[in-house]
Design brief:
The protein is an all-alpha fold and 71 residues long. The protein is built from one helix and no strands. The longest helix is centred in the last third of the chain and has 11 residues. It is globular. It starts with 58 loop residues before the first helix and ends with a helix. The mean pLDDT is 77.
Length: 71
């Protein structure tokens, strides 16, 4: 939680193609990847205030959102 980038991992670039898959958060039902231990696994915890945007956010926007949620 200090807001500093730890590392960058690009798994996707470009536009996401249209699909009929349900949106899931914390669980990959559509295309689980054994490499990332996604097979039969789900997030075991609480996800507080998820946000979905129709575009990639800039680093400044992410920092603003992070700072505005701190208490």
């Amino acid at each position: 939680g200090d807001g500093k980038v730890q590392r960058r991992v690009a798994r996707w670039e470009g536009e996401v193609p249209a699909n009929d898959a349900d949106l899931t958060i914390g669980l990959n039902l559509v295309n689980p990847n054994q490499k990332y231990n996604e097979v039969g696994e789900s997030f075991d915890g609480t996800i507080d205030e998820p946000m979905i945007f129709n575009r990639a956010l800039t680093a400044k926007e992410v920092t603003f959102l992070y700072d505005s949620q701190r208490q």
